[in-house]
Amino acid sequence: MSRSLLVEVLLAPARAAALPPAGWDLLVRQARRANLIARLHDVLADAGVQAPPAAQAHLTAARRIADAQRQRMRWELDRVAEALAGATPQAVVLKGGAYLALDLPLARSRLYGDLDLLVPREALAEVESRLLIHGWVVESLSAYDEQYYRRWMHELPPMRHRRRGTVLDVHHTLLPLTSRTALATPALFEDLRPLAAWPGLSTFAPPDLLLHSATHLFHEGEFANGLRDLFDLDALVRHHGRDAGYWERTVERAGRLGLRRPLHYALRHSERALGTPVPPEVQRELARAAPPWPLPALLDACYARALQPQHPSCETPGAPAARLALYVRSHWLRMPLPLLVRHLARKAWRRLTGAELREQEAAQRQDG
Amino acid sequence: MKLSELDRASLQRRLQGGGLCLDLHPFTARVRSPLPALADAVALLYADFPLAPDDGFVDFHLEIRALPRWLPWRERRARFVFDGLPAFVGLPARQAPTMLEWGLNWCVAAHAHQFLVCHAAVLERDGQALVLPAPPGSGKSTLTAVLAHRGWRLLSDELALLDPATGLVHGMARSVNLKNASIELVAGHLPEAVISPPVPDTLKGTVALMRPPAEAVRRRAEPALPAWVVLPRWQAGARAAFERIDRAEAALLLAEQSFNYHVLGREGFEVLTAMVGRTRCLRFVYGALDELVPAFEALAAGDVA
């Protein structure tokens, strides 16, 4: 599988210096679609590579958006901390929000979407009611979707703030309740790092940050941000990988939480795609969690295609099939077969009858 | 090479193939579409624009894609696609010309953060810019269409691009959006104006696009320094009159009508306050097109108190 221009340049920015105008054009487009354009800006700036003015305007614009989003995200963390004061001692900021709150180097170059939060299931009702009081509302859903979330999923339906429009996803575990991967949910709350700047909020310890990133990427079937998430994972390893005891603790936590297999996939594909520095003994140890042949070979082929920028220039003939296979796999991992069949049949029916499109149009009319 | 020098077959071939690259200073756009209605509109509205090189850097790659028609009696639909990613919902294919204009505006508003991008029309006279912020229905486009043919140079009907580094405002000299009753009104008032066939039943009612004057297109790379911020309001039966307004009110309205004020943050605030600080801020009420020219002549001559 050949590397995209974007990945080549992100790994070796000096290469960009020789690009013709059409090459810069492609580079910016791939970076935009992969949600890695602010990172591209920073990587080129750090390497002292000057983009042509037209391309530079887009890179600088992305830098500005990243700055604005970080500022907004910090403000959002303030608001969430205030809303949840006293609700539960265990409210964990996940993913992008955590990287930002911890001020990790990767946070600066990242673009943000929703804020994700994890709270113990027993605190869920209290958390939801406090968020409602503070202006977050559950977006209106069909009765089926509401039940889908409440009964089977690992999170509440997305909550949107009435005035600010920001979206908050409140999770009570990391994988759907119906998932095939047996996650030891209570163990998630064992090793938290309280955030001094946001009383009442905390993040995972470094090993669990990596485990969550791995689980998220290698369980979900949506790859719109797949490459971005792979770079997150790579950055986490590069940032923490040389800390004393990091790998021992990470492998141990993977075993304790029941996440050895997703961690194996994550580190394997991250090393293959981005050259992530993972000690060989860690890879060997985790390889024991790999599924039997021929699954690994199949997954290698699928991930190599799916973890490309989702841009027409990176679309290979096998890519749609690979994405479909991973989408079906993610649903297979998510829920038992009878439920899966029911769920997918319903989605297909709604798409066929145009119900989904009508709802999208109604939503757009409201926004406009 | 100007687009009008391209024969119809070559235009169609480019739109259906690798794309037609338009030089819309300060941006370039590559447009693709199989729809004949779109080719007609591009040929009409962008006739005076030069083509950009095919192998250069392109700011916005866009496409008006025809959607497959499942049932033969259903109307053909089309969708705006930004560099391979479908954006917005599908609309009837006959709306392709307005989809292109709105889609292109969206591209600029969502990505061009080197400027503070405001929803406003801009015209120029002697190097001085007239900025007309526009809550919908204010009669801004009608006013813009008339002035653009009567001594003022059109910079933009929809997007004022304010450069924080220089304080200058840029436009692209693209077409003017006329809506509903104003289409007939402008066509009757300006016999020389070239106006596209009206498209009925869009989200904004019936829309027709007026081709920018050739001179405006030729000088589209020349920015201007804002001298007046005028809030237009059309009101049936009203006599044309200016009224001074508070600078703070004008600044707040411009911020509200800006697409990326929140992205630029403090810089956005500073460029806006600097602009209203050195411009005259006025409200302008009008009810008849023939009063527009004398009113704005007086404004340009400094005769408005």
Automatic annotation (TrEMBL), chain A:
It comes from the Bacteria. This is Uncharacterized protein. It comes from Rubrivivax gelatinosus (strain NBRC 100245 / IL144).
TrEMBL record, chain B:
It comes from Rubrivivax gelatinosus (strain NBRC 100245 / IL144). Keywords: Kinase, Transferase. This is HPr(Ser) kinase/phosphatase. NCBIfam families: HprK_rel_A. InterPro entries: HprK-rel_A, P-loop_NTPase. Coiled coil: none annotated. GO terms for molecular function: kinase activity. It comes from the Bacteria.
